[in-house]
Amino acid sequence: MTEVPIPNKKNQNAVTRAEGYVLEEHIGHILRRAHQRATSIFVGNFAAHQLTPTQFATLAKIADEGEVSQNRLGRLTAMDPATMKGVIGRLQIRGLIQRSHDPDDRRRTLWRLTAEGEALLAASIAAGKRTTAETLAPLTEREQATLLDLLRKLG
């Protein structure tokens, strides 16, 4: 990732300088940059598995739950219903998940991993761990723990 210089009086716009606003000091910008870095690392580590971050998260949470409704799955993975529907559709087309109807409520669809989904998830767990390690690598172990604790508070 290319380093962006911190603005100084020479390269900062007169309006932002007068207002004391430095984009690189604001949380949304910093989080977006960190997310871009994490996503780039994820893409490199998961290329062989052909999974996006949302697809991997979905497989992992279905595995955790065993069988889960689409609505609950969206809440567990922090995805809105439209995004969740798209992710589910792509995973189903690949034969990684399968649906059934809830015996207590036929209107509700439940999702579970197929054997292929279980195998792909098992094969990609190491890539997930590697992604976390590489993303946090610039930090000490203590800084990593602090960062994760603080981000959980914001989430």
Question: What brief labels describe this structure?
Answer:
7 helices; 3 strands; 11% strand; 155 residues; mainly alpha
Radius of gyration: 20 Å
Main structural class = mainly alpha
Amino-to-carboxy terminus distance:
25 Å
Mean pLDDT: 91
Largest sheet strand order? 1-3-2
Strand content: 5-15%
Query: How would a textbook summarize the main sheet?
Result: 3 strands, antiparallel
Oligomer: single chain
Number of helices: 7
What do you see in this structure?
- The chain has 155 residues and is mostly helical.
- It is 62% helix and 11% strand.
- The chain is built from 7 helices and 3 strands.
- It has a 3-stranded antiparallel beta sheet with strand order 1-3-2.
- Strand 2 and strand 3 form a beta hairpin.
- Helix 2 crosses helix 6, helix 3 crosses helix 4 (70-77) and helix 3 (53-65) crosses helix 6 (115-136).
- 17% of the residues are buried.
- The model has no long low-confidence stretch (mean pLDDT 91).
Question: Can you lay out the helices and strands and say which pair or pack?
Answer:
Elements: H1 14-19, H2 27-46, H3 53-65, E1 68-69, H4 70-77, H5 81-93, E2 97-102, E3 105-113, H6 115-136, H7 141-154
Give the structure's gist in a few sentences.
By secondary structure, this protein is mainly α.
